[in-house]
Each structure stands twice: as C-alpha cells, then as structure tokens.
Write a structure and sequence with these properties.
7-stranded mixed β-sheet, 24% strand, 254 residues, alpha+beta, 41% helix, 11 strands, two-stranded antiparallel sheet, elongated, 8 helices
C-alpha cells in the first residue's frame, strides 16, 4: 500500500515577496528623503529671489520714498547709474564736515588727577571756574589719573553741519589722530578761566574732544561756558546725538 504524499509548503515565493517589499520600502524612503531635500532647496531658492522683490515692492508703495524708488528703478532698467545724486551729496557732507580755525600748543603734564583738578568751584578765588559735570562725565572720568601726557599741538575747527560722534571721529582720521586728554582740555580752560575769548568757544556752544575714560573706553567729551563757569559732559560714540555749530579739537583737523 502506498502512502499519500504530503504537500510541502513552498516558502520561496513568500520570501521573494518579503524581500521585494523591503527593497521597495527602502526605495520609497529614499525617494521621500530626496523629495524633502528638493522641496527645502526650492523654498530657499524662492526666498532668495522673492525677498528682495518684496522689499522693492514695499519701497515702491511707500508714500514717503515711493516716487524716489520708482525714478531710480526706471534708471536701472535703462542701464543708467542710480542714486548718484544722493551718494555725491553724502560724500560732500563728509568731506566738508569741519572748517579749520586754528591751532594751540600744549606744554605737557606729568600727573593729572581729574578729581583734584576738575572740582566744581565758581568762587572768586577759583583758579579756573567750573560750574558742573554731567552724570556721564562723573561716572566715566572722575576716577581717572593721567600721567606723562606729552606736549602736543591741537588743531580745532568749526562743524559745518550736523554730525554724530562716530562720524566726527571718522572724519578726524580715527582714534589715533582724534584722541586727546583731559589734561589738554584743562590746560585750554586755564587760558580762559573766567570765560574770556580764546580758542575755546564761550557762547554756549560745545567744544568737542575725544578722550579715553578711566576704563580706557574712547568717549566724546565736551566743555562749554554756562552759569559763570565751565561745564563738563561726555557721551558715547554710538550716541544718536547730532552736534551742530560746535567746535572740534584733535591732533588733526582738515
């Protein structure tokens, strides 16, 4: 008697099917990753293109500067130079910022203690009448001592137009030529102790200097005659204050 033959399950097709599904899944995953990367790159490329375009449209629609931008855009489309008048005007303003007036010699100082030399005193016996200090000046300079300040010649000139501290310093050639000292300023006011005529303005306008404070930070220092004495003040170089009709002192005034 012959035995019935048992049917052996064939798993080969199942294995192939699983293998195909795994490979197919890997391919789909890679495609999705590539698609995501392509989409991100497309977004970045579109933003690089659209951002300046949107800014241009905003400027053209502006009621304040829209007409100016439209005229410059027309010049650009005609391949003509743009913004020439504005740039030229700005260059002229910087070049003609200060008109030279004169020079004054400083003999030098060995030891200048600010708190001793610049005390407020408007009495009849005061060697130099000083009527006050601004809060910035008191905070930044009253603890300073200057030693071995070399003799120098200071140039001074009148500001011809409004300018911020940073612009004035740049015009003077940067810190190397703009920087002076409190000893030099004090010497100048000793030549005009009661508000007499001299190199320093005494009409209420400021005399501007650039000096390092007790922490070695360059500041704009100004002195002016008011209330029967010399007032001392200071401001930072990043200040938005604009100076006008004042006088600037440094080791270089064009």
């Amino acid at each position: 008697m012959s035995l019935p033959q048992q049917k052996v399950p064939n798993n080969s097709n199942k294995g192939l099917s699983l293998l195909w599904r795994n490979r197919s899944g890997q391919v789909d995953s890679k495609k999705r990753k590539d698609l995501t990367m392509d989409t991100n790159m497309l977004r970045r490329a579109l933003w690089v293109f659209l951002r300046p375009l949107l800014q241009l449209i905003t400027n053209l629609l502006s009621p304040e500067v829209g007409e100016e931008w439209l005229e410059e855009l027309k010049k650009f489309l005609r391949k003509e130079p743009t913004w020439v008048t504005k740039v030229t005007k700005r260059v002229e303003e910087v070049v003609n910022l200060i008109q030279a007036v004169g020079e004054v010699a400083f003999p030098g100082a060995t030891n200048f203690v600010v708190s001793e030399k610049l005390g407020v005193d408007k009495s009849e016996t005061a060697t130099v009448k000083i009527s006050g200090h601004g809060s910035n000046f008191s905070s930044w300079f009253l603890g300073k001592i200057e030693t071995n300040v070399a003799p120098s010649r200071l140039g001074y000139g009148k500001l011809l137009r409004r300018a911020k501290a940073a612009v004035i310093r740049a015009f003077l050639g940067g810190e190397a030529t703009a920087k002076t000292s409190l000893a030099e300023i004090h010497y100048l006011i000793t030549l005009q102790p009661n508000g007499e005529e001299g190199a320093l303005l005494t009409n209420g306008w400021a005399n501007i200097f650039f000096v390092r404070d007790k922490d070695h930070v360059l500041r704009l220092v100004y002195v002016f005659w008011r209330d029967g004495g010399w007032c001392w003040g200071a401001d930072g170089l990043s200040s938005e204050v604009e100076w006008d009709d004042d006088q600037v002192f440094s080791r270089k005034v064009a």
